[in-house]
Amino acid sequence: MAKMTSRQRMLAAIRHEPVDRVPVAPWHLGRIAWDSPLGAELVARCDPWIECGLGGDPFLGSGVMIERGEAGADSWRVIHAGRRDLRGVFTTTAQTTAATEYPCKTLEDIEALLAIPYSEPPLNLSHWRTTEARLGEDGLVCVGVGTALCYPNDYLGTEYCSLLWASDPEVIRRIVATAAERVYAYIERACHAGVQVFRLVGGEYATQLMGRRAWEELVVPYDKPLIELIQCYGGIAHYHNHGNMQHFIDDIGALGVDSLDPLEQPPYGDITMAEAQSRIGERVCLVGGLDDMEVLDTRPLDEVLRMGEELLASVQPRGFMLAGTSSGIYGERAARAFIALAELAARMAGNA
Question: Structurally, how many domains does the chain consist of?
Fold first, then answer.
C-alpha cells in the first residue's frame, strides 16, 4: 500500500485500519533534543507521541497562593491553604524528577487543601498549538491529564493515600469526587478548544497499589464518563497503565479507551502482547512491547532487532504500535534502536 505519514499511520492503528507498516512509537524524544541531528532523525523516521500540557492545575485551579523555590537538586512549593502551609518537594537526578515530599501529611492538611476556594484555571493553548505545528504529520501530539485518582496520590503520596484508603476511605472518596468534577470540566473546555488526543493517567494507582475495590469505586465511575466525553467530541482517549495487567486488562478495555500503553511484557510485566491482543485487541489499540530503559537502552542492537522481529511476528499488525514503556527518559542508544526497529517494521511489511 502507499506510504503513510506518521500521523496517518498512528491514527489508522488506533482505528484498527490497515497500515503501511506497524508504527514504531517512542514516547516523546527521551533525553534527545528535538533540534539535534539524532532528534530530527528520530522524528522523521519513527512515529513519536509528543505530550504537552495546557497549563494550570485542574485540581487546585487558579488564584491559589503558591510560593516556589530551589535548593540544590530540590525544588519546592508551598501551597498557602488558609492558615496552613502545605509543602511539597521534587528532587531532580541525572535521569528524572520525582516527588520526595508531599503537601498533605495529616488529615488536617487534607481538610485545608479541600477548603481552598476553587476557580477554573485558564487554558494555555499556545504550547499545544506550537507543538502541533512543529510536529505536523510526523507523529501525534497529545495532552496529558491526570484522572481523578491521580490527585490523592499526587498530594498525599502513594503510601499515605493507600493507608487512608484502608483506614478512612471516605477521605479518599471525597478527594476523588472533587477532582473528577474539576478534571471533567477542564477536559471539556480543552475539547471545545480543539484538542483531540488526550493521555489519561491515574488508573494504575488502583491496578498496582490500591486494588479491586479502588478500581470499582474510584476509577470506573469517573474515568468511563471522561472517556465518553472525549469521544463525544470526536477525540481519542489514550490510557496509560504501567505494571502487571493480567487481572485488569479486560476492565481497562471495558472503559472504552481507544488505545493503551505501555503493555510491559515478561519479565517486566505479566502479559505477552499476543495475549493482550487476544483479550482486548479487537477494540483497543495496544502500544508497547519493548522496554525502552531495560532493553532498548541496554541491549546490543542485534538482540533488540531479534526481539522486535519476534514481537512483530507474534501480533496482528492492526491495532498495534511497537513502543517502549512510555518513560520519556530514554537515551541515545534507545533512540537509535527505535529508528532501527522502524526500518525492521518496514521490511517485514514489505515496504522497505
Answer: 2
The residues near 287 (Cβ < 8 Å, ≥ 6 apart) are: 25, 238, 259, 260, 261, 262, 263, 320, 321, 323, 326
Tell me, rounded to whole angstroms, the distance of Cα 189 from its chain centroid.
20
Instruction: For residues 311 and 295, state if they share a domain.
Output: yes
* Grid coordinates belonging to 45: 523516521
pTM: 0.95
Cβ-in-10-Å burial (0-12, 13-18, 19+) of 159 comes to exposed
Tell whether 13 is covered by a domain. yes
Cα-based distances in Å from 17 to 127, 170, 210: 30, 44, 36
Look at residue 285 and give its three-state secondary structure: strand
pLDDT by residue (tens digit) across 208-237? 999 999 999 999 999 999 999 999 999 999
pLDDT digits (tens, 9 = 90+) for 314-330: 999 999 999 999 878 89
pLDDT digits (tens, 9 = 90+) for 271-307: 999 999 999 999 999 999 999 989 999 999 999 999 9
CB 259 within 8 A of CB 14: yes
Quote the domain boundaries for residue 277: 6-62+119-348
Whether 51 and 83 map to the same domain: the answer is no
Q: Are residues 19 and 162 in the same domain?
A: yes
Q: Do residues 114 and 130 share a domain?
A: no
Q: Is the pLDDT of residue 204 over 80?
A: yes
Q: Tell me whether residue 201 is in a domain.
A: yes
Half-sphere exposure of 238 (CA within 13 A, CB side): 29
In a domain, 1, yes or no: no
